[in-house]
């Protein structure tokens, strides 16, 4: 069958035919019962045997027709349901292909109907492949349904033809033995019944095999259906231009190795989701970054905060924000903290944003499978490779919501103003902070005064050169090393890495731990550390101390991603 044949099939006619056949079968059953109960009388002789023979053949003929009808009706009903489901899929696929200016010919092949600039869309080859694959999948199901229906009808005819032959043989045997004793005749009838039962058993086994074949086809269709979303996500990401490629095109900047590796790993993870979904017969959402969760006023929690009086005033919230999940409506989502800091000398209000890092375990499926937090291990790769994640966009929205709330409380409005913001975060929180600092849309609304991070790979994030970036690193913490030092171009001039000498365990559970960073930074703030680190800390204080001295008001706002 061709694509057009599938659209021309009328499932309603097949259902109606099946219903009509069952009605006929019911009427035949009534006639068979009436004829079977007919009393032919006690008389004997050749005419009596002839009458009995004619009566048996009539009833046998009617039973043969009655037996043939239910399997045919069942086959028509099953095929009608399958054709209806396939037609629905054809209509949906044709509509989606049409939205991309592709038509589907009667044969099932796609043809391009785009004109003008639409033909230059770089995503068209991928979309064409996607729609063509869907069309071939539906054609396969269409022809399987057609062949299966034909096979069931032929098998049913074959089985019942054989049974009719045996019934005829049984009738002939009864005629030949009509003059024999009633016991011999009864034996022949018993044998005919056993043969009939055997044929019924064989027919049921054939029908079971056909049902198994349909189940296999349905299972295959289900698995293909679940693999499709993973393939769609992969194609969508392929059609997304990573930040390093935009920088190369627009400014001729050489891409850094970690950016390219991050993009490659993220795409590889999404591609691996296709066979994973097929095998699991479910959408596992592997490497599914989804879309940003957009917080509302109900997601804002205002709470008292201590006055800021030094670098530790911004480091402590950076680490504590890991433990500020929404306790009510969104317990599975983290929160970002926005602290308004009022300058005691000028009254100017600046804002410190504290962003949590990775909130999911690496070993569990939730660490890679589109969890609501949006700060999983897959998001780490996307953040480095593409410079953007659903959590990044969600946090930008939440930050703006909190600042609007604070300014409204002060009788001011965000319109026409660009409040100054300091972005801070540990681990993935530092990646997000750096990506927000480089976002043009965010820069239009706010002045990014700096980025302070701990244990983050920030050398690849492309933070604008006029924004100072200070990144604390423990000597043997592997996480901030994954940027490969910004190779091949090296650490950007606006990035200052403050590296602490190693103490204690070499395990990442110690070197990357929030408390380890808090302890090391606290000691450095007291002047305890290498001369180089003390100098860098003094430089940080000189550039950014305006953000961590003054009275504060803190807001915590829910953020995350949505994948359903």
Automatic annotation (TrEMBL):
InterPro entries: AB_hydrolase_fold (IPR029058), ESAT-6-like_sf (IPR036689). It comes from the Bacteria. This is Alpha/beta hydrolase.
């Amino acid at each position: 069958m061709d694509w057009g044949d599938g659209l021309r099939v009328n499932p309603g006619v097949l259902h109606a035919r099946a219903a009509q056949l069952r009605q006929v079968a019911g009427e035949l059953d009534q006639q068979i019962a009436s004829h079977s109960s007919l009393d032919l009388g006690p008389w004997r002789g050749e005419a009596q045997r002839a009458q009995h023979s004619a009566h048996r053949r009539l009833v046998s003929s009617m039973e043969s027709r009655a037996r043939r009808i239910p399997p045919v009706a069942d086959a028509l009903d099953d095929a009608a349901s399958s054709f209806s489901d396939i037609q629905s899929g054809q209509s949906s696929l044709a509509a989606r292909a049409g939205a991309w200016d592709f038509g589907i010919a009667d044969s099932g092949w796609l043809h391009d109907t785009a004109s003008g600039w639409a033909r230059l869309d770089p995503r068209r080859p991928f979309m064409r492949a996607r729609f063509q694959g869907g069309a071939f999948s539906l054609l396969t199901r269409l022809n399987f349904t057609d062949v299966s229906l034909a096979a069931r009808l032929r098998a049913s005819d074959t089985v019942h033809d054989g049974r009719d032959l045996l019934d005829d043989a049984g009738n002939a045997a009864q005629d030949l033995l009509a003059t024999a004793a009633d016991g011999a005749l009864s034996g022949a009838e018993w044998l005919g019944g056993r043969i009939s039962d055997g044929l019924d058993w064989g027919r049921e086994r054939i029908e079971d095999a056909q049902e198994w074949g349909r189940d296999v086809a349905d299972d295959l269709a289900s698995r293909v259906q679940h693999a499709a979303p993973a393939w769609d996500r992969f194609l969508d990401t392929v059609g997304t231009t990573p930040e390093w490629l935009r920088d190369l095109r627009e400014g001729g900047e050489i891409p850094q190795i970690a950016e390219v590796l991050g993009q490659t790993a993220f795409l590889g993870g999404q591609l691996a989701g296709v066979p994973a979904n097929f095998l699991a017969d479910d959408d596992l959402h592997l490497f599914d970054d989804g879309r940003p969760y957009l917080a509302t006023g109900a997601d804002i929690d205002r709470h008292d905060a201590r006055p800021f009086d030094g670098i530790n005033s911004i480091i402590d919230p950076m680490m504590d924000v890991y433990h500020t999940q929404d306790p009510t409506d969104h317990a599975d989502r983290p929160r970002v903290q926005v602290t308004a800091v009022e300058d005691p000398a000028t009254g100017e209000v600046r804002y410190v944003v504290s962003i949590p890092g990775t909130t999911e375990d690496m070993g569990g499926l939730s660490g890679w499978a589109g969890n609501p937090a949006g700060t999983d291990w897959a998001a780490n790769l996307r953040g480095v490779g593409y410079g953007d994640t659903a959590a990044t966009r969600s946090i930008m929205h939440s930050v703006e919501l909190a600042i609007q709330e604070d300014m409204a409380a002060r009788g001011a409005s965000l319109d026409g103003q660009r409040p100054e913001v300091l972005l801070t975060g540990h681990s993935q929180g530092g990646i997000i902070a750096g990506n927000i600092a480089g976002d043009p849309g965010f820069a239009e609304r706010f002045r990014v005064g700096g980025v302070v991070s701990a244990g983050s790979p920030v050398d690849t994030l492309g933070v604008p050169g006029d924004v100072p970036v200070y990144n604390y690193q423990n000597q043997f913490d592997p996480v901030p090393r994954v940027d490969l030092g910004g190779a091949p171009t090296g650490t950007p001039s606006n990035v200052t890495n403050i590296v602490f000498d190693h103490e204690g365990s070499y395990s990442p559970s110690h070197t990357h731990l929030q408390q380890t960073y808090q302890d090391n930074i606290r000691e450095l703030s007291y002047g305890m550390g290498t001369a180089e680190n003390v100098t860098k800390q003094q430089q940080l204080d000189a550039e950014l101390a305006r953000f961590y001295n003054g009275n504060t008001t803190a807001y915590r706002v829910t953020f995350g991603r949505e994948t359903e």
